[in-house]
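Contributing new records

If you add data, match the layout below exactly. Sequence lines come first and carry their own label; structure lines follow with theirs. Keep one chain per record. Anything else will be rejected by the validation script.
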Amino acid sequence: MTVLVLTQRFDPTADYVVEELNHRGVDVFRCDPGDFPRTLTVTGVLSASGAGWTTQLATSTRKLNMDDVVGIYYRRPSAFDVDAVREPVGQWASREAQFGVGGLLRASARWLNHPQRIRAAEYKPVQLQEAVRAGLTVPNTIITNDPSAAREFGNEVGEMIYKPLSSPLLQEGVTEGRMIYTSVVAPEHLAEADGIAATAHMFQERVKHTGAVRLTVVDDQMFAAAIHGASDAARLDWRSDYPALSYEVVPVPDEVRCGVTALMGALQLRFGALDFLITAEGWVFLEVNPNGQWAWIEEHTGLPIAATVATALARTI
């Protein structure tokens, strides 16, 4: 039996899992779907007898029958490589790869997490609503492109922060880009009506807190690391100043554990990287990343996340 790891060629988080599986003697087939069709070949045959798809992946050195796969780790693979096909056929070829190869892979039920569940859970309005239903505390939030609605919300809650709804990376050219971190919303920002009206913006009440928590969840296992920032930038958004951070393993409060279990069930996720703020009243939920980073947390705290992911993937071996 084999664990299939779908990831880019360079991914330190996937490396942790592959190393752990190799240490256990578990067979690993690692590939990047983005290598299709250049160096990755995929063939799926559906039998009229109703046995389901028989799918094979092949690289230049190995072949894999999907019937032999016991677990699939989906770790941010790259897009399909159809650059050799000229436009407009290239766009069509890319969609065909997505629905053909992607469809064959998605027909399996052994994911951590299933790509469709990842995509659905990435919508912040969905996860925030489910978090409230699960009994977790969340900040007062508004999503709008109406400047007057944003100003009215600010008048109600006081100091606000802004954070992007999708990727924080703003691409500025083929190889250049910049990160959009959480920022405090000043009154002059709300006066820029054209900017607010241009697209959807998410504003939240600024939560007074003493620290942050990255909670990594793998099935029923939870690993909590408090993140303390030594700079103003790190305290506002710890991603903006990693050198100013320190880490501490902390227990998960019972009410948070119960809420997170309900949230993960509602989103149909087996894995999640959840962010919280620590306040005097308890933990405040910010978001869940269904394909989030955790390797640096294990490196700083020693929490056995890679081992737990490997166990989840190879559970029936």
